[in-house]
Amino acid sequence: MRIVKLSPHSVAFPSAEGALRDPNGLLAIGGDLSAPRLLAAYQRGIFPWYSPGEAILWWSPDPRAVLYPAERHISRSFKRFLRANPFRITLNHDFAAVIAACAERPQDGTWIGPEVQRAYLHLHRLGYAHSVEVWQDDALVGGMYGVAQGALFCGESMFSRVTNASKCALMAFCRHFAAFGGELIDCQVLNAHTASLGAREISRRSFLQQLSELQRRPLAAECWAAQVIPPQQV
């Protein structure tokens, strides 16, 4: 296995099954963040992740972290929080603000530099990338964004400025997505936050098989129209 250098003249990718084991999932280097290349990557279970100013790295880890909307977990304490309904949650109301907020994590470092923000904002304008916004009064306090692949949604990043805001974004999106026939949310790599909400790991092979099937099931356009997502009933 070796890292493949992408051609500037083609958006073709090598098979995700050829990714390295260490570092887990590293597949290719180079290329650009043009819409055709990004879409070609997501269609094959591949995503970019790299430090700003360095060469673009492309990944497809094994195992893959996923969340099935029907398996989402709402703890007792979170149910009590939801009953108070402190937030208003919207879809596709301010993608630019959400991705900019996801980049504002200096304590952790971020890969979401200006080049990445421009690329995904372009995907949003083309109708492929979508955002969920969490509002407290008129302030944006949380949210998430990602890329749709039919009945599968590739989650990219989320943020919280107040307690439970990103949880509310993901749980509200799960309900909305499932209501329109969405079946799987790609979380890429498992972490404590997503695991606490019901995400789990599956093999890359299983993920790629499901991606191949689910991306052929486009959801109704109404799923992605700018709208308010009704509050959770618990």
TrEMBL record:
Reaction catalysed by this enzyme: N-terminal L-lysyl-[protein] + L-leucyl-tRNA(Leu) = N-terminal L-leucyl-L-lysyl-[protein] + tRNA(Leu) + H(+); L-phenylalanyl-tRNA(Phe) + an N-terminal L-alpha-aminoacyl-[protein] = an N-terminal L-phenylalanyl-L-alpha-aminoacyl-[protein] + tRNA(Phe); N-terminal L-arginyl-[protein] + L-leucyl-tRNA(Leu) = N-terminal L-leucyl-L-arginyl-[protein] + tRNA(Leu) + H(+)
UniProt GO molecular function: leucyl-tRNA--protein transferase activity
Pfam family, one: Leu_Phe_trans
Compartment(s) where it occurs, according to its Swiss-Prot or TrEMBL record: Cytoplasm
Transmembrane regions: none
Enzyme Commission number: 2.3.2.6
Coiled-coil spans in chain: none
Tagged with keyword Acyltransferase: yes
Stored InterPro entries: Acyl_CoA_acyltransferase, Leu/Phe-tRNA_Trfase, Leu/Phe-tRNA_Trfase_C, Leu/Phe-tRNA_Trfase_N
Major localization class: cytoplasm
Keyword ATP-binding in record: no
Keyword terms, alphabetized: Acyltransferase, Cytoplasm, Transferase
Family the entry assigns: Belongs to the L/F-transferase family.
UniProt function note: Functions in the N-end rule pathway of protein degradation where it conjugates Leu, Phe and, less efficiently, Met from aminoacyl-tRNAs to the N-termini of proteins containing an N-terminal arginine or lysine.
Protein name: Leucyl/phenylalanyl-tRNA--protein transferase
